[in-house]
Design a protein that fits this description.
two-stranded parallel sheet; mainly alpha; binds adenosine-5'-tetraphosphate; 330 residues
Length: 330
């Protein structure tokens, strides 16, 4: 059986990178797979945070899921803290994961930066909890952006380590699904950094709830180079190439088709066309998010129902894990 699991952290506003790298895939996959989509609030506390903001962001990300086209009747939508499997299995898997594997994780190095000694144990163990999130549902496919590739490989290694250690064929090895034109959307201010919720500059990203004027302003101010034409060259024109990638992904076409279409245009005209396209595609998502945010009772109801369904799938698997691992249930 094919089952999809993926998650997004409620650490701030959803942005175009989350949308093109993850959410758009989530929506496409709900037609063909049994899908479980999670607002990973336990991951969101691995860095310093504010409890009131966590609560608000959890509702906002849920609203973003729904506004992007996820149907709570067809897929399970819930917040991670409401299913006890995650921390429970996370702990058990952490006891099977060698430190050497975690020491290779580049996301920890980037996020901890120079303050490594102050970084939390949770941030270090983040990829193990992520492995539990996925394999605790026996998920087979995981749609993610390019930045999550290394963590997904670790999830496969951990699933394999469990199977080998206990001599079972219990956890399927999950397949990353990293597809589409925009698997790594870059910052609008620096084409070598990925677009991120936690970037200090709001001008570095397009948020799903930005209005038309804000989208136009951010694309107008987006850094480019002095070359006038529309050509794709990720190495020498990273910022311009990023905007071409964004256009291609929003229009569901290829980068080459975009370059061909704008072969004789000035880059400034291309930016205007990109703004129009982004407003056309994201405007309705932002509007729907606003409508849903005004109805927190509905959003909470979706999460409550999703959590019940998530627990019904995960807890029997967790029981089997505990049986395999030798925990006595007297
Ligand atoms: N720039 C991006 N391009 C393509 N995909 C992206 N994703 C994130 N940024 C980009 C994908 O979105 C999903 C959810 O990401 P997340 O919120 O769980 O964590 P993240 O990757 O750490 O995202 P951010 O925005 O950078 O959050 P912060 O700033 O809080 O760390 C994942 O599938 C991810 O690949």
């Amino acid at each position: 059986m094919n089952r999809v699991f993926s998650g997004i952290q409620p650490t701030g506003s959803l942005h175009l990178g989350n949308y093109l790298g993850a959410l758009k895939r989530f929506v496409e996959m709900q037609d063909d797979y049994e899908c479980i989509y999670c607002i990973v609030d336990l991951h969101a506390i691995t860095m310093p945070y504010d409890p009131a903001e966590l609560r608000a962001n959890t509702r906002e990300v849920t609203a973003g899921f729904l506004a992007s086209g996820l149907d709570p009747e067809r897929c399970v939508i819930f917040n991670q803290s409401q299913c006890p499997m995650h921390p429970r299995l996370g702990w058990m898997l952490s006891c099977l994961t060698p430190l050497g594997w975690l020491n290779r994780m580049t996301q920890f190095k980037e996020k901890a930066g120079k303050k490594r000694e102050q970084a939390s144990l949770g941030l270090y163990g983040y990829p193990v909890l992520q492995a539990a999130d996925i394999i605790g549902y026996h998920a087979t496919h995981v749609p993610v952006g390019e930045d999550q590739k290394q963590h997904l490989e670790l999830s496969r290694d951990i699933a394999g380590a469990f199977n080998r250690q206990f001599g079972v064929d219990f956890f399927p090895l999950p397949e990353p699904v990293i597809t589409g034109e925009a698997t790594r959307v870059m910052s609008l201010r620096d084409g070598t950094k990925k677009m991120s919720k936690s970037d200090e500059s709001d001008y570095s990203r397009i948020n799903l709830n930005d209005d038309r004027d804000t989208i136009a302003l951010k694309f107008r101010k987006a850094r480019t180079d002095s070359e006038p034409g529309v050509t794709y060259d990720a190495e020498n024109r990273p910022e311009a190439s990023n905007l071409i990638t964004i256009y291609a992904a929003l229009a569901d076409t290829s980068r080459q088709a975009v370059v061909d279409d704008y072969a004789s245009a000035q880059f400034s005209d291309f930016k205007k066309a990109l703004t129009e396209l982004a407003v056309e595609k994201l405007g309705p998502v932002g509007e729907e998010m606003k409508r849903l945010m005004a109805d927190p009772g509905y959003v909470d109801g979706v999460l409550k129902d999703g959590a019940e369904r998530a627990r019904a799938i995960a807890m029997p698997i967790q029981d089997e894990v505990e049986e395999i691992m030798g925990f006595l249930k007297a």
